[in-house]
Automatic annotation (TrEMBL):
Residue ranges crossing the lipid bilayer per the database entry: none
InterPro entries reported for this sequence: Aldolase_TIM, DeoC/FbaB/LacD_aldolase, LacD_aldolase
GO BP terms, alphabetized: 6-sulfoquinovose(1-) catabolic process
Superkingdom as given in the UniProt entry: Bacteria
Protein name per the record: Tagatose-bisphosphate aldolase
The keyword Amino-acid biosynthesis belongs to this UniProt entry's keyword annotation: no
Hydrolase in keyword set: no
Record family assignment: Belongs to the aldolase LacD family.
Pfam family, one: DeoC
Recorded GO MF terms: 6-deoxy-6-sulfofructose-1-phosphate aldolase activity
Keywords, alphabetical: Lyase
Length: 89
């Protein structure tokens, strides 16, 4: 039980609230990008987008929710105080 509490604390803020930024979406993000360009969204574009969002916004969150397919590079640039959650499928 103590181990679970430790993990929850890593993704919670100082008021014990999980305030997570969720950018684990892939399909919806691809559709949004495709709407504004002629060619389909590439894996590189999606990863780069997630990396930028992570670097800019995780200073305001207690954690970030990412997908393993495109989000691993975003984990490398998240705020040091933000916890990390990976989508499991």
């Amino acid at each position: 039980m103590a181990e679970k509490r430790s993990y929850i604390k890593q993704i919670s803020n100082d008021k014990n609230i999980i305030n997570a930024l969720a950018i684990d979406q892939r399909g919806a993000l691809k559709k949004m990008i495709n709407k504004y360009q002629d060619e389909p969204a590439s894996a590189e574009q999606i990863s780069k987008f997630k990396k930028i969002v992570s670097a800019e916004l995780t200073t305001y969150t207690s954690a970030i929710l990412l997908d393993p397919e495109y989000g691993l590079s975003a984990a490398q640039v998240k705020d040091v105080d933000a916890g990390e959650l990976l989508a499991y499928e």
